Amino acid sequence: MAGKIPFGPTFTEMCDPSQIDPAIRQRALKALKENELDPINLFNITWKDENNQVRKMVLPPEVTGVDANIVVLLGRGFPSGSHKVGPAYATLIEGCVDGVIKPGEHTILGPSTGNFGIGVAYICKLLGFRAVVIMPDNMSKERYERIRKYGGDLDLTPGTESDVILTLQRTYELKKDPRNFALAQFELLPNYRFHRHVTGNAAIEAVQGIGNGRIACFTSAPGSAGTLGAGDQIKKAFPECKVAALEPYECSTLYNGGRGQHRIEGIGDKMCTLIHNVLNTDFIVLIHDEDTVRGLKVFQDGTEVLMKNGVKEADALALRDNFGPSGICNILGAIKMAKYLRLGPGDNVVTVATDGFDRYPSVLEDLARRTLEIEDFVLERWFKDIFLKAHTHYILDTRRPEAKGRLFQQKEKDWLPFGYTREYLDAMKSPSFWEDEYAKIEYYDAKIKELR
């Protein structure tokens, strides 16, 4: 394998798989079912299913308690079980195109709290690289098992989700060895490019034929803040769209500089990431971490309770297995914003489910240990309190210049210590910075095709 890269799809092909050679597409779809570790699976990195339709779910109003349509893009259909495999591939392939990553020479580092690390291990397995995933030592055990299954090594740092700064420091330590190359999801812009182009366009397509066919609001909880880049693309199509960044109430860094431990794996990392385009973040919304875990329990094991409350059986069953705590967080943020913006029956709020339930059974086991009883009457109370009675407290409007200024200050505080210059950070205050970065897709697509 050394020296040879099996180049995968372009950004355009990930956005629209109908652009892929039909023979390759068919081989890839077959491999997705039969052999997860066949490199042809690179061509399955897309939000689209075998019929070229966006994998999505429109939540029934009986679940959300709002008139607006809550449309959820489903990430578990990606190879490795999460959309984070997309940014991992994009970052690696851009490095290969640029000649800064060489097969047989480099070990790939993946700083992560979970899904990105799983994606890095998976992509490296397919492309023949050694992967070292640097992550906190208190994440769900399913995450560690999946990384090892794909042949990745773990380098664990102390703490939980909100101690990700320690994983960054460890990554910078390991990067001193020139043989190590970090797929730094919090700071490298291929992550932004992937989500702006692939996720953003999938969201735009997902609302066709639903409500008024437009997007009134897009909600996403930043881990790396890559997914929020989709909002930049959505605003191009629907300028009225509001973008809301969601944070754990227990770790409200963007909201008010707060820091703390929390239970929503994959988000709330005590920083404003480098690739977060705060110019396009209109609101910051706080979500209680326990609501996301209890909400997951309701979706996973509360089918009877949901049916008793008017949800059709097929709809209740469809909620199973498609979400983790961060997906529930994104849904709660969507419900809150629908209420806050007073959206009606024709309006659409779009959000994403990063992964599925397969990496969270231990999270529900932990909930059971911490909770005195979880009978159906408890699940019913949780369902009503968390979903139907979702309130609009803790929503911060960040559209004014002073609010943007505070977010830029947070970014400086977080990234100047890692060697970024004030000039570079200041450049991010201009929309042209982000447009120029997005425009590089054309260059990378041409190079991938040529090298392939």
Automatic annotation (TrEMBL):
Residues 79-355 form the Tryptophan synthase beta chain-like PALP domain. Gene3D superfamilies: 3.40.50.1100. Its cofactor is pyridoxal 5'-phosphate. The keyword Transferase applies. The keyword Transferase applies. Keywords: Pyridoxal phosphate, Transferase. It is an enzyme of class 2 (transferase). Its EC number is 2.5.1.47. SUPFAM superfamilies: Tryptophan synthase beta subunit-like PLP-dependent enzymes (SSF53686). GO terms for molecular function: cysteine synthase activity. InterPro entries: Cys_Synth/Cystath_Beta-Synth, TrpB-like_PALP, TrpB-like_PALP_sf. This is Cysteine synthase. It comes from Moorella mulderi DSM 14980. The lineage of its organism: Bacteria, Bacillati, Bacillota, Clostridia, Neomoorellales. The gene is cysK_2.
